[in-house]
Amino acid sequence: MPIFEYVCNRCKKQFEELVFSQDEQAVCPSCGSTDTAKLMSCCRGKMGGGAADSDAPVAKASTSSSSGGCAGCSGGNCSSCH
C-alpha cells in the first residue's frame, strides 16, 4: 500500500495519504474537501546499513540553482521542489 502526496485545491494544504486502491479519492484532513490533486514525490532511499558501508558509492543530488532542482535545501522535500 503506497503513500501518496496530495495538495488540496481548496485550501492549498499538502498532505500524505495511505492509498488502498487506485480509485480511492483523497480527502483533505484540513478542510474535508475531495478536490485534491496527486503530487509528484521525490523518492529517497538509504543505501547500505550505515557507517560500515562507507565504501559504497552514493549518488548525490545536484543542489545547483541552475539545475532547476532543490537549490534552497538538501532534503529534497521542500516547497521549492514542487
UniProtKB/TrEMBL annotation:
Record organism: Humidesulfovibrio mexicanus
Lineage: Bacteria, Pseudomonadati, Thermodesulfobacteriota, Desulfovibrionia, Desulfovibrionales
Domain Putative regulatory protein FmdB zinc ribbon: 1-41
InterPro entries: Regulatory_FmdB_Zinc_ribbon
Name by which UniProt lists this protein: Putative regulatory protein, FmdB family
Region called Disordered, residue ranges: 49-82
